[in-house]
Every structure is written in structure tokens, then in C-alpha cells.
Design brief:
With 697 residues, the chain is of the alpha/beta class. It contains 29 helices and 12 strands. It folds into 6 domains: 77 residues, Winged helix-like DNA-binding domain superfamily/Winged helix DNA-binding domain (Arc Repressor Mutant, subunit A, Orthogonal Bundle); 65 residues, Arc Repressor Mutant, subunit A (Orthogonal Bundle), CATH 1.10.10; 143 residues, Orthogonal Bundle (PTS-regulatory domain, PRD), CATH 1.10.1790.10; 105 residues, PTS-regulatory domain, PRD (Orthogonal Bundle); 88 residues, 3-Layer(aba) Sandwich (Rossmann fold); 173 residues, Mannitol-specific EII, Chain A (3-Layer(aba) Sandwich). 56% of the residues lie in helices and 11% in strands. A hairpin with a 5-residue loop joins β11 and β12. It is globular. The relative contact order is 0.06. About 5% of the residues have low confidence.
């Protein structure tokens, strides 16, 4: 079974300590981020099962490998014999490319096979697949008996290929920090073997100088660049300077370079190259200015709003119009006069065509989902592109981005924004509302969100156009649904967005009627009772709100019990032990920490709760707990939200509102973390008034 060098280090560290160790301590020890540790732990858990061992987590203390001493010793002995040769095919091909690129001449097949600990036949098969990918960069692989294996092509093509591979294989948000840490600490720790091999190709000291130089162009450059493009630019410049210092030459067709000099990005690229030439005391050829100009153009994918059609080449505008006409004919939907679609396509196509013509390559992390969710539209845009761009082949990665432009335009014509989402959680007053808040922010297509339990869901008429999003597995349901965590990860946000877009594509023209207090046929008296119920619940929360401090030189369970005793004295609950038990049972269903904060939200609905209550408790020493997104956080504030059982639906809606107020935005989160009782009380009151005003309207 394959494990990376970093996973091996994590396991060895866990086996070497007699007690638990926190994620933060592990991350510091291995010189990676806590997020990286969390990602690796998922694979480590499966690996440990093969040795009858488990990875256990203890709230407030950390993680530990548990199992028999014999099995731990067996694993220790096994790790001593582990070599990291068990790469997947794609990983081997990446390593092969880096080895051939770094070699001064031909390399023997035996040497490559020995380096990667596989057979010569496996290397031969990998080289065939690698050569297919390299065709896009106008590179080939020379293989001759008695001569060896060599990467063949221009210096510029080699650099494009390796720059693309590095940008694709390395995580952008860790690339620079990894380099900085290794420079500062002069660390000899082995990170992920593939990352190490790729990073070996770039001089890390040069990277920092180049990044520092680029940052001088922040306003004119970085504000519009994606993370991938930014890393790609740094890698390209690092490789360029390194190869120039080694005497390698790069050239560009004079007529093409003359055309690039007319582009607005050329002056920025020229100034950047001049500064780098001064820093490294070398002569950088003018061709490099041209290639950096194309990098800057290829990085401007985000600048839709600031890009006018008058600035674009007329040829690109004409091609964009032709593409729209081709798609319009194939799908029989009027798109010709759709101005945002034309502007979006021109904005994307201008740098995209540069990328394609110069074989620069681009990564599209959504490509797989786009192909699955928009299979028909993907084929249509592919056909339309072939009809318009007859002299070049548009790669699937670029087709994927074009599909999103057309998909957005089609959805706009279909009056996007009228979907109903049913959110199913194990609890109705805490995590469900937080999930709903995220959905409102991240998925504009959702017009209405209904929080329901799995039991209540069967009583709702779910149509094929509704989204059902659940934090728990549903059994025997006749409709499609998506399982997510209570606090959406970035990947889950993308999944939900795709889910919503697919629903909109199949949605009919009938817009579901919106249910509210004024349209459900109730009489004025019933509406007044509802408003009274809302007001009563809000008043109770405001009256009972308090921020208190507690000692916590004891486990979190003891702190919660102490909190419940205080509430019992205030006659908000009856039995402190019962409520504390209910809170622990709720925690067992899923993590309660609010990601990227120092707060944890305990909540429950119980017959022993006499009044609805929201209180906050500051603790003296931080407690490490799991957050809703699976990360670990250091908790210094306990939030406690309680509801009576039974409790009317209006009150439950107010309690859900309360949990959403906490994470409404960064400003709100900062306010609650400040634990300023007066300011928080005023903030909650203002939000309640706004909510009540909307209900009255």
C-alpha cells in the first residue's frame, strides 16, 4: 500500500510519543500546515487498519495511535523497510519528466527504473504516456539503444512543460511557505517526495528574490491574478533565470514579439525583467519579456468587470460572436444579444488563445465535475469550438471554462435564483442554520431554504427541481440528495454549486410559490399571534443573555457541567446533570467548533429547559477541540444555546436565527470573539428587530 514520505513521518512521530499529540504540534514538528496534516490523516487511518491499529482523537488532548504493543512494533519494523517507490502512474510520469529535464544529457533506462524502484517495462510504458502529454508542448522523448533517454525540444518548450507540471502538482497555498520554511530552517526533513523532486528544479533562494520583486507590482498585477497563475509566473521566472545562468538560450519569432510590444502588459513585463536583471546581475534576452507578457495576459482570467470590448482585438470579438452563434444554433436558445456572455467570452478567450498558441497549458480543477454535470453542453461547446477555431485545437481544460460561461448565460435566461433547498441536519437549532447561512452566501441560485429533520422531510412534496442537502445519510428516499459536512469545505461548496446549476437546467418555467405569514391564508389574529411568539422568544434570549468567566482546570465535560449548574441556579433549566448529558450526546453526533475561530457552540432541545437561552462563557486556558470542517481549533469561548422541548416553530426559527447571527460575516465573528457583553447584546437586539420588521412586512 502506498504512503508518502510525509505520511510515514507522521506515523513514526505518533508511534514515538507515549501520549496524545495535537495537530498543531505535529504540523510544527514536520514543518507543514495543520490543514496538510488533516488531509494526510485520512489516508493514514486506512493504512493503520491493515495493522489492526486505530487513530483515536481525544477532545482537548490530541491524537494517538492505539492498539496492541505487538502490532505497533510490527508497524515500526515495517516502516524501517519502507521505500517510497510505490508511486501511482501519474506520479511516476511527473517524476520522470523532472528527472529528464534536470539531466545534462541522456539517461539510461536502467537508471530511471532503479531510481523509481520499478521494472524497465513499467518505465517504458510510462514514457509512452508521458510523450502523449508532452505533444501539447511540442516536446518529444528520444529513446535509442546505447544512447539512453532524452527530452527533446526547444528550451522554451521544456520550460513551459516543467512550469506547468510544477504548478499542477504543487498546492499553490503551500508552495511559497514550503520554500520559505526550508530556507529559514535549513531543514533536512523530507517532505512529499514528488514535491521535493519538483522543488529541487527551482533554486529556492531565487524564488524568494523573484517573489519579492513581483510584489512591487502588486496593484498593477497581483490583484487580478489567480493563485495558480501567480505560482506559475514565479516558477517560470525562476527556471528562466536559472537556465540563463547556465548558458541556455531562448528565442521568440521576431514578428510575434513585435506584436506583443503593442500590448499593455508589455511595459509591466519589461520593467519586471529589468529589475530581475539588476538583482541577478545578468543580461536577460528580450524574448523573455515577451514570454512574461504572455504570462500576464494568460493570468487575467478574473478581470471580467474591468475589461472592455474596445480594448480587445477585433478578431477575438468576431470569434466570440461566431462561437455564440454556433452554440445558439445547436441548442436552439437565443444568445446572440446576450451582452454579458459576449463580454465574458472575449475576456476569457483573449488570454486563452495566447495560452493555446504558445502551448502554455492551464489547469482546470473543475473539469471532471463540469464534464459530468454538463455532459451535453460540453459536447456542444466542443463542436462549436471546432467549427470556429479551425486552425488550433481547444483543450478540454479551456472548453470547461467556456461551458461555464454558456451555462451561466443559459441559467440567466431561465431566471436563475428560484430554487428551494431542504437542509437536513441531526440538530435543528445550531449547525443547520450555520449550513443554511453558508448556502445563502455561496449559492445565489437558492431562493428559499427550509431546515427540516429527516423525519419531517417525508412530509414535504420534494420535486425534481428542489435541492436536498443533508449532513446525514438518508435511507429509502425517492429523490436525489447531496451529503455534506455541517460546515461546508471548499470542495463541498463547489459540489453544491454544481448541484444547483444542474437543477436549474432541468427546472421548468413554473416558479414555486413562496410561503410566508401574509400568503398562507391565515387570518389577522393568527398573524398577530405569530408575531407575538417571535417577540416572546427574542425577548427571552435577550433577557437571559450573559457573558461569564469560568475556571477550566478540568476537562471540557466538567466545564459544561459547571455552566449548567449556573443556569439551574438562574431557573433557566431544571437539572444540570440532565442538560449536560444531553449536550454531550449532541456533541457525540458531530464536532461543534466553529472553524477558524476560538468558539464552540453547544446546543440542545430538552424537556428540562424552562426558558430559551443563549449565554457565553470565557475559559482561562485554551482547549483543543474539533471544528465542524474537521480541523482542530483552540477554544477559549463556549457558546450555549438551549431550547425547551416541545417548543413552537416560531421560537425554533428565532433560535436558528441566533446561531446564524454569530457567523453572519467576519465582523460579527470578531464581535462574538471579543466577548464584549454590551456590544454583543446590542448587536443581537438590532438583528432581532430587523428580522421582526421583515416578518411584519
Amino acid at each position: 500500500m502506498y504512503i508518502s514520505a510525509r505520511e510515514k513521518m507522521i506515523i513514526e512521530k505518533l508511534l514515538s510519543v507515549p501520549e496524545e499529540i495535537t495537530i498543531q504540534e505535529l504540523a510544527k514538528e514536520i514543518a507543514v500546515s495543520s490543514r496538510t496534516i488533516h488531509r494526510d490523516l485520512k489516508g493514514i487511518e486506512s493504512f493503520l487498519q491493515t495493522y489492526h491499529l486505530e487513530l483515536t482523537r481525544k477532545t482537548g488532548r490530541g491524537i494517538q495511535i492505539t492498539g496492541s504493543v505487538e502490532n505497533k512494533d510490527l508497524l515500526k519494523r515495517k516502516l524501517m523497510t519502507f521505500t517510497l517507490q510505490d508511486y501511482m502512474a501519474e506520479e511516476r510520469q511527473t517524476l520522470l519528466l523532472s528527472m529528464l529535464y534536470d539531466a545534462a544529457g541522456p539517461v539510461k533506462l536502467f537508471t530511471l527504473a532503479n531510481e523509481l524502484k520499478v521494472t524497465a517495462a513499467t518505465i517504458s510504458n510510462d514514457l509512452l504516456k508521458l510523450e502523449e502529454e508532452l505533444e501539447h508542448f511540442q516536446l518529444s522523448i528520444i529513446r535509442k539503444r546505447g544512447y539512453g533517454i532524452e527530452l527533446s525540444g526547444t528550451e522554451e518548450a521544456k520550460r513551459r512543460a516543467i512550469s506547468y507540471i510544477i504548478s499542477k502538482s504543487l498546492n499553490e497555498d503551500e508552495f511559497l511557505s514550503l520554500i520559505r520554511r526550508n530556507i529559514e530552517r535549513k531543514s533536512t526533513v523530507q517532505n512529499n517526495a514528488i514535491s521535493e523532486r519538483l522543488l529541487h528544479l527551482v533554486d529556492r533562494e531565487k524564488v524568494l528574490i523573484i517573489e519579492e520583486t513581483i510584489r512591487h507590482f502588486h496593484e498593477a498585477l497581483l490583484s487580478s491574478m489567480t493563485e495558480t497563475a501567480y505560482v506559475g509566473l514565479i516558477v517560470h521566472l525562476t527556471l528562466a533565470i536559472d537556465r540563463i545562468q547556465r548558458g541556455e538560450k531562448i528565442e521568440m519569432e521576431p514578428d510575434f514579439l513585435t506584436g506583443l510590444k503593442k500590448e499593455v502588459e508589455y511595459d509591466t513585463a519589461k520593467e519586471m525583467i529589468q529589475q530581475l536583471a539588476n538583482r541577478f546581475n545578468i543580461d536577460i534576452p528580450e524574448a523573455e519579456v515577451g514570454y512574461i507578457t504572455m504570462h500576464l495576459q494568460g493570468a487575467k482570467v478574473r478581470e471580467y468587470e474591468e475589461y472592455s470590448l474596445e480594448d480587445a482585438h477585433m478578431k477575438v470579438v468576431i470569434q466570440a460572436r461566431q462561437l455564440i452563434q454556433e452554440v445558439e444554433t445547436l441548442i436552439n436558445i437565443k444568445l446572440t444579444n446576450h451582452a454579458p456572455l459576449l463580454e465574458g467570452l472575449v475576456t476569457h478567450l483573449k488570454p486563452a488563445l495566447y495560452r493555446i498558441e504558445q502551448k502554455m497549458g492551464i489547469r482546470n480543477p473543475l473539469l471532471k465535475n463540469i464534464k459530468e454535470d454538463y455532459e451535453d453542453l460540453f459536447q456542444i461547446v466542443t463542436i462549436a469550438s471546432e467549427n470556429v477555431f479551425r486552425d488550433i485545437k481547444i483543450p478540454d481544460e479551456e472548453i470547461g471554462f467556456l461551458v461555464l460561461h454558456f451555462g451561466a448565460a443559459i441559467l440567466g435566461l431561465e431566471k436563475a435564483g428560484n430554487l428551494t433547498a431542504y437542509v437536513v441536519c441531526s440538530s435543528g437549532i445550531g449547525t443547520s442554520k450555520m449550513l443554511a447561512m453558508q448556502l445563502r452566501r455561496e449559492v445565489p441560485e437558492i431562493q428559499e431554504i427550509r431546515n427540516v429533520s429527516a423525519f419531517e422531510l417525508i412530509n414535504h412534496p420534494i420535486s425534481e427541481h428542489d435541492l436536498v442537502i443533508s449532513t446525514i445519510r438518508l435511507t429509502d428516499v425517492p429523490f436525489e440528495y447531496l451529503i455534506v459536512s455541517p460546515f461546508l469545505t471548499e470542495e463541498e461548496v463547489q459540489q453544491v454549486q454544481m448541484f444547483a446549476k444542474r437543477k436549474l437546467l432541468i427546472q421548468n418555467e413554473t416558479k414555486p410559490a413562496k410561503q410566508d405569514l401574509t400568503s398562507n391564508g391565515k387570518c389577522a389574529t393568527s398573524r398577530m399571534h405569530a408575531i407575538q411568539a417571535y417577540s416572546g422568544a427574542m425577548a427571552a434570549l435577550l433577557e437571559n443573555f450573559a457573558v461569564m468567566k469560568i475556571e477550566n482546570k478540568q476537562p471540557i465535560q466538567q466545564s459544561i457541567y459547571e455552566v449548567c449548574e449556573k443556569l439551574a441556579v438562574s431557573h433557566i433549566i431544571q437539572d444540570a446533570g440532565e442538560i449536560a448529558k444531553a449536550l454531550f450526546e449532541r456533541e457525540a453526533l458531530g464536532s461543534l467548533g466553529i472553524p477558524e475561530t476560538d468558539m464552540v457552540l453547544f446546543h440542545t432541545k430538552h424537556r428540562g429547559v424552562l426558558k430559551p437561552s443563549f449565554t457565553m462563557y470565557q475559559i482561562r486556558e485554551p482547549i483543543v477541540m474539533s471544528a465542524m470542517d474537521g480541523t482542530d481549533i483552540e477554544v477559549t469561548t463556549i457558546l450555549l444555546l438551549l431550547a425547551p422541548e416541545p417548543y413552537h416553530s416560531y421560537g425554533m426559527e428565532v433560535l436558528s436565527l441566533m446561531s446564524s447571527i454569530i457567523i453572519e460575516n467576519e465582523k460579527s465573528i470578531d464581535l462574538f470573539q471579543s466577548a464584549n457583553e454590551k456590544l454583543i447584546h446590542a448587536h443581537i437586539g438590532k438583528k432581532f428587530e430587523q428580522f421582526l420588521y421583515e416578518k411584519i412586512k
